[in-house]
Amino acid sequence: MSGATRSSIQRKQAPRRKSATREKVAITIPRPLIDQARQEVRAGRAESISALVSEALAEKLKTEALQGILEAWDAEYGPPSEEDDAWARRVLGI
């Protein structure tokens, strides 16, 4: 057996290690969203569909965590006054 063939066989027989930072999962996504995701990848605006989904999920979880913080502040201090809201909008430029 040549070295290349022996090497190939050894790789195939080696036990697979699970990645400590990533896990493959199966999800169902509506076809139109998948089509749009593929367009984003083709246009170079996303590295892959997996990267795009990971980014969207991270953003969703971050938004929900921030919403939880705001709700806790409202529960402790009450909602912001109109004056507070106007100040925040002015400072943020929105």
Shape designation: elongated
Averaged pLDDT: 87
Low-confidence stretches: none
| Helix coverage percent | 55-70%
* Domain unit count: 1
What is the beta-strand fraction? Answer: under 5%
- Count of DSSP E strands? 0
- Please give the largest β-sheet: none
Task: Explain how this protein is built.
With 94 residues, the chain is mainly alpha-helical. The chain has one domain. The chain is 67% helix and 0% strand. The longest helix is centred in the C-terminal third of the chain and has 29 residues.
Features:
94 residues; elongated; 67% helix; mainly alpha; 4 helices
Summary, kept brief:
The chain contains four helices and no strands. It is an all-alpha fold and 94 residues long. It has one domain (26-92).
Question: How are the SSEs ordered, and which strands pair?
Answer:
Blueprint: H1 3-13, H2 31-42, H3 49-77, H4 82-92
